[in-house]
Every structure is written in C-alpha cells, then in structure tokens.
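Tokens for chain A. Residues wanted.
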C-alpha cells in the first residue's frame, strides 16, 4: 500500500508508512525539547561545584596579579607602599595600598574582591604590611585564604606573599 500525502482533515496526523505509523514533526520537537530541558538541568546541577572552583581561582589570580603589579611599579620607581586590610563584609577584607615615596606618594589604591572572600589566614587585620621597592621585600609575610562566598561550595585556595616579595597562589597553605 502506497502512502498518500496528507490533505485536509488528515493534516497533522501521523502518516502510515507501510504497516508502521510515523511520528509527526510536532511530536518529535516536543520530545527533543523535553530531552534538552533534562540535559540542561543536569549540566547546571553537576557544573555548580566547578563554577565555584573556577570563581575562587579567578579571584585568587586577580588579587595576586594586582599585588604583583603594584610591587613591580614600586620597584621600578624605587619606592614602597603600605598594605593595610579592613573588614569589608562578613568574612571578607578590603585591601588599601598607600604609596610611600616616588611620584605616587600619599595616593591610595583599593582592592575589593567581588566574587570570593579573601581574608588573612590568621584573621588578623590590624597588622599592616610594608613593601620596600628598593629591596623587593614584604614585611611581614602573609598568607591569605580565598574562599567561595557560600561556604563549602568550593575548595579554599591560598595566596602566599613571602618576605622576599613573591606572590603565589597555592592549593595548600604550606
């Protein structure tokens, strides 16, 4: 039995092909839409931890790059700066850099994290750090915790600023 094109009142119904019934285009689109929704939802569920890890990594890299650039400028201009911290919000610190000497003397620059929480590992915000551009040294050294804004959603990273003025991002504090 040959198939006949659908016309009139039969339009939209499945067409017979031999002895088998075929799906209509609308039925196929609905099934594909449902499968796409399930796949999209599962990607969101399983990717959440990776997004948090990536956010913490980006914030740690962004801060370490900012501090490294400030240290490089201080060394080129043979001046120093004072790095002080204050609490911006619960569990997060704001970093204020005040130039000492050179063409920027007295001016300040501020770093505030937006995607993750950065805080000194020992929790002490009162100790200011001094960077000497002539010697390329930071006194005292500091280790900062970089954590996700929602606790437990990603692993903690550590920004280690050594006394020799090296800034590194690590998975472990030591």
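Reply:
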């Amino acid at each position: 039995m040959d198939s006949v094109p659908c016309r009139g009142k039969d339009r939209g119904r499945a067409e017979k092909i031999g002895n088998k019934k075929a799906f209509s285009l609308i039925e196929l689109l609905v099934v594909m839409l449902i499968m796409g929704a399930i796949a999209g939802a599962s990607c969101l569920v399983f990717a959440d931890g990776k997004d948090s890890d990536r956010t913490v990594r980006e914030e740690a890299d962004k801060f370490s790059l900012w501090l490294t650039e400030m240290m490089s400028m201080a060394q080129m201009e043979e001046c120093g700066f004072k790095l002080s911290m204050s609490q911006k919000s619960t569990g997060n610190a704001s970093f204020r850099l005040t130039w000492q000497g050179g063409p920027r003397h007295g001016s300040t620059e501020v770093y505030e994290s937006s995607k993750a929480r950065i805080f000194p590992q020992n929790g002490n915000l009162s100790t200011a750090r001094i960077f000497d551009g002539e010697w390329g040294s930071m006194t005292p050294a500091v280790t900062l915790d970089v954590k996700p804004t929602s606790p437990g959603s990603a692993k903690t990273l550590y920004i280690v600023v050594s006394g020799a003025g090296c800034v590194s991002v690590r998975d472990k504090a030591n």
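The first strand starts at residue 16 and ends at 17. Helices lie at 25-76.
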